[in-house]
Amino acid sequence: SFKGLVIILFLIGHGNTGPGTTPHLKHIVIGRCYDYITLVNPSFRYNCEDIWREFEEAVVRRTPCSVRVKDYQRMFRAVPQTLPCDRLLFWSKTRDLMHSYAAVTGRFWTLEDTLVGFMFNDLIWCGQRERDRGFDFQSCPEWSTCVTHPVYSLWKRASQNFAAAACGNITVLLNGSIHNAFNRKSMFGSVELDNLNPRMVSHVHIKVVPNLEGPFVESCSKGSILDLINVLESRGFHWSCTDRDVTLMILQCMKNPRQSSCQTCSSSLLHRKSLYL
Description:
Strand content: 5-15%
Structural class: alpha/beta
Shape: globular
Order of helices and strands: HEHHHEHHEHEHEHEHH
CATH architecture of the domain at 1-86 and 109-165: Up-down Bundle
CATH class of the domain at 1-86 and 109-165: Mainly Alpha
CATH superfamily of the domain at 1-86 and 109-165: ADP Ribosyl Cyclase, Chain A, domain 1
Helix content: 40-55%
Mean pLDDT: 90
């Protein structure tokens, strides 16, 4: 029937869509900006309203699948930021553990600690199908449906800048319980790694972290980690690798204290402590 045809065409036109733009996006982004420059890093001075205007213009003047990395150029020009040496932490498929690790140690900076990362973390946005009609709060395309996705393009540019600014020692946190822990299609593998400068980065510390009870798929001596090491060596980086980081194991045990490996870890630490008493 004609009605059925209309429904089918409607579904085709809206295939592979996800949630729409995050509600109250403007208030969240500008609010986070003021939070950052007032409480998180008060030494920085930025014009939050200008940053929002440049961001909005980059997104709403283009259709949802046609926002390129360079379209955010004016926005990023409004948020220059010098990052600290020896403190940058990169990661792939280890998000929750990465945040815990950064919080507990207090010495790392992640992409989410930069102003742009802080402002846009976990948000979704896209413009309407007709340009200059504002944000689409009903649905946005999935990342996989277009190369020039508005969210992906912003994070790609942010990741490029973050990696290019890296200096001194850096740390990379990878998941040892999955195949392709180092994935050339991930943001780290496809963007950040290529933007690291061997003349500025003196050492790359690789930390491979499997789940406490496995599976133990990859380590410093097997799997895609070897591919990462080959890339680093071919580009002249100094590196080291560990897959038994005690701090990371303790953090995992804090979430799952009943795991058998946590009992072993606890006994080992108590034994080590007794040696110094």
